[in-house]
Structures are given as structure tokens and as C-alpha cells.
TrEMBL record:
A Pfam entry, by short name: I-set
GO cellular component: axon; neuronal cell body; plasma membrane
Primary gene name: NFASC
The protein, known as: Neurofascin
Keyword Signal annotated: yes
SMART domains: IG, IGc2
GO-annotated molecular function: axon guidance receptor activity
Length: 484
């Protein structure tokens, strides 16, 4: 209304100026006519063909001048009209928008109208339904900002569609098409991670959820490296997958699938990488050598991120020198750190520590250099009826002089001992093969073995178990079956 009032005032002012100028012009003509007396009037005549003078066109130069003056005054009044009174209609520089978003996001649709005045009203529509008038909204998830932009909070697939910003009363409008992704999405700990690589720390708990933003009601299934997730993780509850205590086994490709019974159901994936402290082990906790010989110690480890191995003696780090060499090689998917002690003397005997550390933590294992035989290792055993044949391997540079086998029935407190006579060296190596045969009664048996070289006895091997079956009982069962 304010703009219309200004327009009427402007027109009134222009009309007043025109009338004032015309009155001034008439008065000027009257003064001129009074001062100048002439026999000739301002009329002119042209003769007819008959010679009669007849009046044709009456020309008044003063009136023409007045009309010209009036036109100039009008143009001047229009030109002198204040700029704020010349109102331009509202318009949009961009009338078509297309917006693509993910579910659960907040979306802002701009309404950038030009020449919006105080008498204009902004309306927002979704389709044909009014959702906002000015900053008054009809729905709780919708807001209108002071610059007339529309904000839709926590978008769902139901919010997709056509939106219009309209300027009244001119009914100028802008159209925005909102599209919401309907595919599956994976969230872990509340963050959207679809198609991402997720780095998890060993020991931490995590929860992942597969969300299918569709109006369809389908079953969600989880897979890890192609296997059902239930066989790898502790808990899978519908859309949610729980990693209560992350471990290295949890690394891999995770997929969730919306089982809509189609040949190509919707699916989403993430890659899980587990970072963990080093895991260090060794197959040889005892390393046999002889005085003046070299001793090779090793430890195997895995770590993510990669770790750094360090060998220590009496808590002091060992560096490469004439006495020690250090090396690392890949071995069966792990890293093997090798320490070689040159020209071993009695003072070099004892415990060495392999320690591996990364940014997550550290781990270590101890290895001893000895002159005695190393731990015996079970190579194989054969059971035939009541007879058991057991094969052991013992590493010793020095010749073996004796070996003792301990055995006992399960549940017994004392070990029985038997000396082993059959020993021989493997080719030209320092590995000895020890074999023992024995007759045993039916039952579950435990065995262990140790060996002696020219320096002394080894430690006992690990305990191993085997079973001697009761053949008479089995035969008795067969006889009963025959009687039937």
C-alpha cells in the first residue's frame, strides 16, 4: 500500500505542474497580444480558384509553443520522479532448481527473489499444499529463515518432491525438485560410512547399522567376506551389527543386503581395517649352539600399523656390530626378525628379548641361547592296537647321549619313565630323531620327553595325549550283535 500511495502523489504533482504551466502560458499570450498592435491578424487566408479568399487552416504559433512547453514539462516531471517511487516487479533469476540429498540430512532450499517489497508475501508449497506463509510453517520439520529460505530437517524419502516459492500478489514462483536417495546406507557409531574404509582399534566396542530408506518392508542381512556375519561377530540383531571387542578377525569387507527377493537386491558395503598392537611369537624358545659357533634367534610378528622390532640383552638394546647382525624377512604372512650372535662364548648364553612396538602398543617374547639340547618336538605317533610308536625331533650340535620318555594314564599323579635307545642324526644336520615303541593298556595317555647331550639335559617337551582303545570290549560288542 505504501508504494501505491507514493505513485498517486507523484501523478497528482505532475498534473498540478501541467495546469500551472498552461495558465502561465495563457497569461503570457494575453500580455503579448495587448502590447503588440498590428493590422494583420494571426489568421491567414488562401485564395480559391475563383479568387475568393476563404479560411482554410487556422494556425496559432503561440498555442503550438505552449503545447511544446507542456510536453517538455511533463517529460521533466517524469524524469525528476524519485528513484524509490519507480517500483520494479519481483522476479527470480533462477526459476528451476534440482537438489539431491541423503536421508537424515538437513536441506536448505533458497528463495532468491529480486525486487521483493514490503507489500509482498512469500509462500512455500509442496506440490499444491501450502507448507509455509512468510515465516509461519505448517509442519514441525520445516523452518523458514529470514531470507525466505526453506529448511527441511532430518529429510526422509517422504520429503522428496516438488517445492515452490511464490511471491504474492504478483504470483511469481520458483520451482525446486528435491530428490532423496532411497538406497541402503551403513552407519557406524552414528556416522554414515557407506563405501568407506573404517579403521577400528583392537579392543574397542562398535555398533553398525544398515538402513534402507524405502517404503518397502524388507529383511536386512549382514555378510562379512561373503559369510553370514553371525559366524564372525558376537551379535547381529536385524539391521544392527555389534562388535563388542574388536579383534583382528573382524577385519574384512562388510555387506548389508535388503532381501527384497529380487535377483539383484539393494546392498551397501564398508571395508573394516583393524589396527592392533603387535603380536609376537617364536617357534624356538631355546637355541642350541656350541662354543665358537653362531646362534640364530628369531621372532615372528604381525602388527597394524607396522611395528618396529628391537632385540635386547639384559634390558639393553642390541645394535648391528661385529658381534650381532640384525635382519628382517617376510615369513608366511608375518614378519620375521632375526638376531645372529657371532662366535658364541659362555658369557653370551642366556636370555634375549625380541620386542616389537607400534603406535597402538607393544609385545615381546624371550629366547635363550643354550649348550644343552633344545626342546624336543613331537614329529609323529602311530597307534596300532595296544602298541604306540612315537617319533621326536631334537636339535643339538653336540651328539645326544640319552633320552627319557615320561608317560602316565590320565588322572594319575606320577610319571613312569623309560629310556629311549633309538636315536639317529638327520643327514648332516644338527637335528636328531628319537623313536620309542611301547605296549600300553587301554585308556588315555599323556607323554613327554627330554634329551641329553654332552653338556646336559634339555627341558621337557610339551605334553601330548593319545588313546589306546579297548579291543576286547569292541569284540565283545560284536559278539553280542552276532547273537542277536
Amino acid at each position: 500500500m505504501k508504494g501505491g500511495t507514493l505513485l498517486l502523489l507523484t501523478l497528482f504533482f505532475a498534473t498540478f505542474c501541467l495546469q500551472f504551466n498552461k495558465a502561465l502560458s495563457d497569461e503570457t499570450k494575453a500580455v503579448i497580444a495587448g502590447d503588440i498592435v498590428t493590422d494583420d491578424d494571426e489568421y491567414y487566408y488562401e485564395d480559391d480558384d475563383d479568387g475568393d479568399a476563404s479560411a482554410h487552416d487556422y494556425v496559432d504559433d503561440e498555442e503550438d509553443d505552449a503545447d511544446d512547453y507542456d510536453d517538455e514539462a511533463l517529460e521533466t516531471a517524469v524524469e525528476e520522479k524519485p528513484a524509490e517511487l519507480r517500483v520494479e516487479p519481483p522476479y527470480f533469476e533462477e526459476t528451476e532448481l534440482q537438489i539431491y540429498t541423503q536421508p537424515e540430512q538437513n536441506v536448505m532450499i533458497d528463495c532468491v527473489a529480486k525486487n521483493v517489497h514490503s507489500n509482498n508475501v512469500i509462500m512455500w508449497y509442496k506440490g499444491k499444499v501450502v507448507i509455509a506463509t512468510g515465516q509461519f510453517t505448517m509442519y514441525p520439520n520445516v523452518d523458514v529463515l529470514k531470507n525466505n529460505s526453506l529448511v527441511i530437517k532430518n529429510v526422509t524419502v517422504k520429503d522428496a518432491g516438488d517445492y515452490y516459492c511464490e511471491v504474492l500478489p504478483e504470483k511469481v514462483r520458483m520451482h525446486a525438485l528435491l530428490e532423496v536417495d532411497e538406497s541402503l546406507m551403513i552407519f557406524c557409531d552414528g556416522k554414515e560410512v557407506t563405501n568407506d574404509t573404517l579403521v577400528l582399534v583392537q579392543g574397542e566396542p562398535h555398533r553398525c547399522e544398515c538402513k534402507y530408506y524405502s517404503l518397502e518392508n524388507v529383511q536386512i542381512k549382514w555378510f562379512i567376506d561373503g559369510k553370514r556375519a553371525e559366524s564372525v561377530v558376537e551379535r547381529v540383531l536385524g539391521e544392527q551389527l555389534y562388535l563388542d571387542n574388536v579383534d583382528t578377525k573382524h577385519g574384512g569387507i562388510y555387506q548389508c543386503l535388503a532381501d527384497d527377493l529380487s535377483q539383484e537386491p539393494p546392498h551397501a558395503m564398508i571395508v573394516v581395517e583393524v589396527v592392533y598392537a603387535p603380536k609376537v611369537s617364536t617357534y624356538r624358545h631355546y637355541v642350541n649352539t656350541a662354543q665358537g659357533s653362531n646362534a640364530e634367534l628369531y621372532c615372528d610378528y604381525t602388527a597394524n600399523p607396522s611395528g618396529q622390532a628391537q632385540w635386547l640383552r639384559n634390558r639393553k638394546s642390541l645394535n648391528a656390530s661385529q658381534k650381532y647382525t640384525l635382519d628382517e624377512v617376510a615369513h608366511k604372512g608375518r614378519t620375521r626378525s632375526i638376531l645372529t650372535v657371532m662366535d658364541v662364548r659362555s658369557k653370551d648364553l642366556g636370555e634375549y628379548t625380541c620386542r616389537v612396538q607400534n603406535t597402538i602398543g607393544s609385545d615381546e617374547v624371550n629366547v635363550r641361547i643354550i649348550y644343552e639340547p633344545e626342546h624336543p618336538q613331537l614329529e609323529d605317533f602311530e597307534v596300532s592296537g595296544s602298541k604306540a610308536v612315537i617319533h621326536w625331533l631334537v636339535r643339538s650340535i653336540q651328539p645326544l647321549s640319552e633320552a627319557v620318555l615320561d608317560y602316565k594314564l590320565a588322572g594319575s599323579y606320577t610319571w613312569s619313565k623309560v629310556s629311549v635307545v633309538h636315536t639317529h642324526r638327520h643327514a648332516d644336520t644338527h637335528i636328531w630323531k628319537v623313536t620309542h615303541e611301547m605296549e600300553l593298556t587301554p585308556g588315555s595317555w599323556h607323554v613327554r620327553m627330554r634329551a641329553k647331550n654332552t653338556v646336559g639335559w634339555s627341558a621337557f617337551s610339551a605334553q601330548h595325549d593319545f588313546v589306546i582303545k579297548d579291543n576286547e570290549s569292541d569284540n565283545g560288542d560284536d559278539d553280542d550283535d552276532d547273537d542277536d
